[in-house]
Amino acid sequence: MKILTYGLCIALSYCTLIDSQLFAQEKRSRARDLGITVGILPTGQWNAITDVAGVKVGQTSVISGESVRTGVTAIIPHEGNLFQDKVAAAVYVGNGFGKMIGISQIQELGNIETPILLTNTLNAPKVADALIDYMINLPGNERVKSVNSVIGETNDGGLNDIRGRHVNRDHVFQSLREAKSGPVAEGNVGAGVGTETLGYKGGIGTSSRKLPASKGGYTVGVLVQSNFGGVLQINGAPVGRELDNFYMMEKKEAYKADGSCMIIIATDAPLSSRNLERLAKRSYISFGNVGGFSSNGSGDYSIAFSTHPSVRVPYDNKNQRELDVKDVHNDELSALFMAVWEATEEALLNSMFMAEDMTGINNRTVKALPIKKTLEILKKYNALNHDKLPKAVKN
Predict the structure, then answer these.
(1) CATH number of 135's domain
(2) CA–CA separation, 98 vs 297, rounded Å?
């Protein structure tokens, strides 16, 4: 009986310890759930890139031992065979210190013929090789002899044994196989496991915007892999400065300014590659709004694609010389530009608000953005609870 009682006391003490530890940890929430509203447009159902019909996301986190903190994230534009039914696309390079694969063909031909995969810098070639295996083995691709795999990357070497190149073919295939629509996991997941942003833990973030019917009713969705430095700002509030954690401040541990950011933009609006590039450029406004400035060693890329059937490019042209392609009129693009600005900014914030503390290689720890303190700063600067849309935003 004494043994049982003693054991019970130990168990109760252990549970109390665990409860206190959990209580001490801040609950992670998306920015909008905390009263942080970016812009004036409404979100889609999931407030994610998957609000664009047909788009799916799959992620595999690779976490092992004390030093492996990485992964892969897959964005699939539609459910069909992408090589046989390519999507219109474009790339905007904010700062070219990156190892993105597939950029030249996108710029030359204006389309994408594979899913977009995100990973770490040194794993990009391995992931590209696995994606080629996946594509040439799809039914219908038996005679394919050239594939332009699209791989984005950021350097997660601050937390991950990046030299080990731990993302392999199985991880890539798992991400592609398990990709789905609906809510998207954010923070320390997939290609965001080991990333750092604006002095805190970064990761995967996503958001979307829905245009009113009077502006076409189109949806714009954004997914980011955030891993860059600067001075954090939220809705104009100088959060990084108030938290005493920003680039060029005096501190014992060197502030991480380099790193990179990948921004993936999907829309169901019929846009040519020319206008998709214009759309991609606007995402860079958001990058600056949250405090990023594209340091010398930051590779910052925006990839935009349209899922609209009229702007797809068939591999087999069936002897048709001309494509019957639609394109939103230049004068009607402003609302889409606004949508991508808002969705990108919120996606970047979600990547930080949903991230958690992470300890990795060399026992180094990167703390998550402190939510309670951040909200106090936002209240101080009247940057919270802008949740009511102005009456001027009409459907």
Answers:
(1) 3.60.70.12
(2) 8
Nearest alpha-carbon partner for 126 in 70, 194, 82: 70
Q: Is 241 part of a structural domain of the chain?
A: yes
Cβ count within 10 A of residue 267: 30
> Mean pLDDT for each 10-residue chunk of the chain (395 residues)?
35 38 69 96 97 98 97 97 96 96 96 98 98 97 96 97 98 98 98 97 98 97 97 96 88 79 98 97 96 94 96 84 84 97 98 98 96 97 74 57
Question: pTM for the full model?
Answer: 0.91
The structural domain count of the chain equals 1
- Domain contains 65: yes
| 260 noted as active-site residue | yes
| Per annotation, catalytic residue among 283, 298, 302, 351 | 298
Question: Among residues 149, 175, 208, 260, which one is catalytic?
Answer: 260
Range of the domain at 87: 34-317+324-380
First to last CA, the chain: 71
Look at residue 2 and tell me if it is in a domain.
no
Our answer to whether residue 300 is catalytic in this structure is yes
**Residue tagged active-site, from 294, 300, 306, 351:** 300
